[in-house]
Amino acid sequence: MEKNKKEFIKKLKDGIEELNISYSSEQLEQLWEYYLFFIEENKKYNLSTITEADAVIKKHFLDSLVILKQLNLEGRKRWLDIGSGAGFPGMVLKLFLPGDSFYLLDSSAKKVNFLNQLSYKLGLKGIDATHGRAEDLAQIGEWRSSFDYVCSRAVASLNILLEYAVPFLKIGGLAYLYKGPEYEEEIEAAQAALKTLGAEVEEIIELDVPGLEAERYLIVVKKTSKTPEKYPRRAGIPKKRPL
Questions:
Q1: Tens digits of per-residue pLDDT, 136-163?
Q2: Do 126 and 104 contact (CB within 8 A), yes or no?
Q3: Any bridge partners for residue 223, and if so which?
Q4: Domain region containing 103
Q5: Could you tell me if residue 47 is inside a domain?
Q6: Which of 170, 162, 187, 208 is nearest to 65 (CA)?
Q7: C-beta of residue 221 within 8 angstroms of C-beta of residue 166
Q8: Residue 203 lies in a domain
Q9: What is the DSSP string of 166-211?
């Protein structure tokens, strides 16, 4: 196990350095602890099919961290990760942005249980995992229009995802949405959703994740005006009848 740990941390360190992100040995240790707990709990909960050390480093950890260079890191931010699953990207970003507040949202109770156990295990403060659906929580006063940043990875196509994400943002807030090579068609199909919800695509960034062949893009969406109160529509409707 000690040999595995050394190897794991070296690969992680090399990848983070390639991303040009500053890190501490404590953060590398935390990611190792994260990996061990994730592997253990995955046997019970089936959190992800990606479990091999090398793949976890590239496809989960580095893929979560790659957006750090795109962020404005001034001041403390309030984040929401929609469909956080096993904590990618929200939990990983929290380790590198300890001063920011993170809310991890997932509709699976077992995943939320895992996230809460993990944050306790890693001794994290200012992070909260909640079991629920975006459509319900976005209608609640303290959640709606209260976040600086929303992030989401592999949850839904853009026209659906925008209806989940935009209502949570403050005006001027940004959504960081991870997408694959089909992002242009998704943006085309999301024009009505952007207009209806009061948002616009601010930037499209090609991401380069060390060791990952797959094309990755970050769609940065800015909330420009108040979202009409009827959005998001009730649970299940955005997916059935996208805007």
A1: 999 998 999 999 999 998 778 999 999 9
A2: no
A3: 199
A4: 70-240
A5: no
A6: 208
A7: yes
A8: yes
A9: GGGEEEEEEEEEEE-TTHHHHHHHTHHHHHHHTEEEEEEEEE--TT
